Each structure stands twice: as C-alpha cells, then as structure tokens.
Amino acid sequence: MAIEVAGNTIDTDEEGYLTNRDDWNEEIATAMAKEDDCDLSDNHWEVINFLREYYEEYQIAPAVRVLTKAIGKKLGKDKGNSKYLYELFPYGPAKQACKYAGLPKPTGCV
Amino acid sequence: MADFEIPKLTEFQLIPHTKDGVMAHSQPYVAKPEFQESLGFPGELVDNWEEKAVEKLGDLVKGSRALQVFLDACVKCGACTDKCHYYLGTSDPLNMPVARQDLLRKVYRRYFTFAGKYFPKLVGAVDMSKDVLDQWYSYYHQCSQCRRCSVFCPYGIDTAEISMAAREIMDEVGQGQKYCNEIIGKVFKIGNNLGLPEPALVDTLEGLEEDVLEDDGVAVKFPVDVEGADVLVVTPSADFFAEPHIDGLIGYAKVFHAAGINWTLSSYASEAANFGMFIGSHANMQKVSLRIREAAQQLGVKRIVFGECGHAWRVAYSFLNTLAGPFDFLDPNYPVPQHIIEVTHDLIQRGAITLDKSANDEHRVTYHDSCNVARASRMGNIPGGQFVLPREVIKASVNHYYDMAPETVRESTFCCGGGGGLLTDDLMELRVKGAQPRMNALQHVVDEYDVNYLAAICAICKSQFAKVMPYYDFPMDMIGSVHGLVSNAIQLGVKE
C-alpha cells in the first residue's frame, strides 16, 4: 500500500503504517488523518510530537499511562486520561496516533 | 461505526439459521518473508506446497495419536454445532466445529485412509488444492482454540488441536499469519510481544513507582533484573503497556510489597504469552519457554510466578516442565510454576494481606473465565480450583459480586472472541461477532444486578473487551484486571 502526499508516493504496510519511519513529515500525518476524516488540532500534535520524541529515545511507543501522564502535564490534569485521548483518537490512541506519527503499530495483546 | 452488521443481544442465546459462506471473506494478513524466516518457516508459498502440506499432515498424524483419533473418531452427532461463539455470532456453517474439523479431515481421508484413497467421493475425501488452502487460511483463523466445543463432544474431539495442526501445516508450506509470526519474532529479538526494550521497560516501571507513591503514599517497588530475588514474575507485556492491564501489574506489586516478598521482573523473559502454541509449533513454543528458564537460572530465583495471561497459564501449567524443565533448581515447597492468583489467594487465606472491600464499593463485579485457564489448566489443590480461586480473590476484594449464567461460565465459558492469535485489527468483524455470546451473558447481569465491572485474568480478553464492548453499547472501561480490584482494596500499612 502507499499514500500520496504532495505528488510523492510513500510506502505503507497493509494497515497504512509507514514502511520507513524516515519518510515521515507533518504533511504525511495530516494526509493520513484526513483519510480518517480527522483534522489535526494543536492537541493532536502535542500527542504526535510526544510519541515521536519518546520513540526516538526508547525505540517503542510509550505505554498508555506514560502518555496520559505526559499529556496531563502539558495540557492540564483534566486531559491526562485515556478518555480524553480516545476523544482525540477514537480508533485508540496507541494505534491511531502511532500511525500519524509514522511509528510502527504496537503489537501483542494490546 | 462498523461496515458489517453487529449482532443483536437477545434475552436467550439464539441458535441462528445457517448462512453459507458469509464469513468466507474473513482472513488475516499473510506474514511477510522476513517474519516467516525468523521462525524457521519458508518465506512464501513453496513450489510443491500441495505435496509438502500432505507430507506435513502425515508427520503430524504419525507424531500425535490424539490428532489421529480426533480425525478418525467423529460420528457427526452434531453436539458441537451450536457451541462455537463464532458460529453463534456469524451464522456461517463452516464455523460449526465439526465443519471446521472436516476442512482438514477431508484431506486426511484422501491421503491416509483406505476408503479415501480408493473411493474418495463416497467418504467426502478431497485432494489438497488451492481452494482447500484458502478455506483453511480463512476458517482456521476463525477458531480461537478455546475448546468449548470439546467439552460437549461425546468423544472429546479437540478442535483446537486440529486448528493448530492446520496452522502449522500452512506455516510449513510458507503461508503463515502476520499477527502471530511477527510477534513471535519480536520475542526472539527483543524479549516480548510488544517489542519493548529494556530501557523503556525500566522507564515505564519507574513511572509506576512514582504513581503509586503519589496515589497511596507508599514506596511500592517494581524491580527488574534483580539477582537473588526469591520470585521471578513473568507477565504479558501488555501489563506494561495497556489499560486496564497495567492496574493488574500494580496489584501484583502491591501484593508482594504487603506480604514482604522479594520479587523481580526480567527484561530478558519480559513476556508470559507464548504464541508458539497458537500456531501449533512445538519448536517455537519451546524456544519461547526456554527464555523463562534461562532468566530464572540467571537471576537465581526460587520461584516462578505467572501474571494474568490466559494461554500463558496453559503453557505454564500443562507444558512448561516438558518444554523447559526440569525445574529442580526451584523451591519444591511451592508449585512450579505458580499463578499470581494462587499467590494472592494463599496470602489472603493465611491472613498475610488485608483487603478493604469497601474500596471497591463503586464496582458491581462479574467474572469472565478465560478459556485457556478454564479448560486447559488448574489452580490450587482442588479440582476446579481455576474457577474457585479467582472468584475467591475477587470476593475478598469487593462487596458486590454476581456470576453470569451457568451455561456461560466455568468449563462452559464463552471465549472473549479474540483468543488464539486472532486479536488483530484485520479480523475485527470476526472479533465483534464472536463476542456476541459473552456480551449477551454480560447484558443479563447488567440488567439484573447493575453490574458495571467485568473482571478478567487474561491480557487478550482485556484488550478484546476494551475494543469490542463499545459495539454493544458497553463502556470500554467496564473491563478490568482481577488484580486491579486487589490493588484498590489492599492495605499497605504505614504511609511515608
């Protein structure tokens, strides 16, 4: 599979995750979100940027709890919970946000 | 919400009229060559795959008298036909256990029985062909290997064994399933299903220590790779990552803290799950299991305790000693291995930990028996302990507990719909439909007793329910860990 962004074709796997993480840029994230009828707000970007930073350091997406804590610190305690994250990413914060952030899909019993 | 029809919940479990082929389109993504090869399987479908498949089937039948009996013994009595949650939820007749078995049986008959060799049409025997392979790939990935049908079969035919054999044959000819095989590869490479490396594990656990200190005012530890600890805890990596799993992990840590037990996790054996079983591969199952033995020896622990993971407990309880034993270096005064439920249950019995049930008064709880725990293992030293102990731990932690209908719990429990290597987004229609019988039973206790908490001891069940419950208008946070309840109720003594 692939996604078209600004005239370029970027490879993705069967589920729409980037095959090569280095291909990522903000336009790709926006285009992926658009396919899901989702407009990325500043709050979406807070999550996406945090995921990318965490991945850079640890080579894995953060646990849901690590993510909610970090978002709570940045956006206020009322937003530091998985309910809020599901409002932003209704297909599940771990999977949907990872996809927009260009990270691989979390695997296993999750 | 979905591009398929969501089954309705009904007052009684209805047995649907058959609808031919309605799930024939359902199949998971095929594993890429790199994932196949890291497990020792061919990267893609080999040239003479028909021949190879028959040869492998012959080997499996020769190597397992059980499999041969299962293939020979069926008398088509029909007792199993309405027992599979996937049949009840999809209406596809090939999801009747007998029909699912027959997909393999008809090939077995053709090549390995007298009647099938010489009069194939008379006995429904067929050649191995692409159509057969396609049907196998679809319908053997519509079996969660939950073994409910085998409870009702007068001959005890175990469809799970047949579906494992079919998956192993498909792996051997080069057509494996992406979800399972990619995950097993990650265990070999990184140590767990998630691909969670040691620094991330350590960071996550440090975060949990901070959280518990903040919430409860007690310095509960989450130790990793501590040599000389008494207990090695092996738990599904989802416990480090997902909700509500992580509440269970916090519960285990509090139990060890309160009881003064010196424990550790291992970054090398940071996974209880063993997907080698789902794909029927003894070699891969053994390789995953040996990591636990190596970690236990390297850390010098005296006991191995398994966290809340359904099929891991089947592998641990039923096969671990054969796969990775003998465990003569462990303390023989404790069960080898032990389940975290057994540990907590024992401590409650001895009065070694104190629980305040009123801490869970907002929860009205029911319990989902996970299939592999219920039908393939035991706990404690009494028959049926695997049903009794988890309920006793829950009842010691909450004031409001209600069982679901008897035909849907204990040995007759319905699968969550996502077990056996099917917990993947490419099978979402199957997962939602297969959950219908369990959701039906849940609806009844919600209506009758205002139940608002479904407790489970399996990472797959927890993730599956969190995902599918909203399709049936239940809130996703209704699913919780048994040790999440323990975590709320346990008294930790002096605060700092």
Notes on the structure:
The complex is a heterodimer of chains A (110) and B (496). By secondary structure, chain A is mainly alpha-helical. Chain A has one domain: DsrC protein, C-terminal domain (Arc Repressor Mutant, subunit A). In chain A, 49% of the residues lie in helices and 7% in strands. Chain A contains five helices and two strands, in the order ββααααα. Chain A has helices at 26-35, 42-58, 64-75, 82-88, 93-100; strands spanning 2-5, 8-11. In chain A, strands 1-2 form a two-stranded antiparallel ribbon. In chain A, 35% of the residues are buried. With 496 residues, chain B is mostly helical. Chain B folds into two domains: 33-176, Fumarate Reductase Iron-sulfur Protein, Chain B, domain 2, CATH 1.10.1060; 185-402 and 451-489, no CATH class. In chain B, the strands form two sheets. Chain B has a four-stranded parallel beta sheet with strand order 2-1-3-4. In chain B, α2 (49-63) runs antiparallel to α9 and α14 packs across α15 (310-324). Chain A binds chain B through residues 14-15, 57-60, 62-66, 69, 82-83, 86, 92, 94-95, 104, 106-110, and chain B through 29, 178-179, 182-183, 186, 192-197, 199-200, 203-204, 207-208, 211, 236-238, 240-243, 245-246, 273, 309, 423, 425-426, 459-460, 462-463, 467, 476-477.
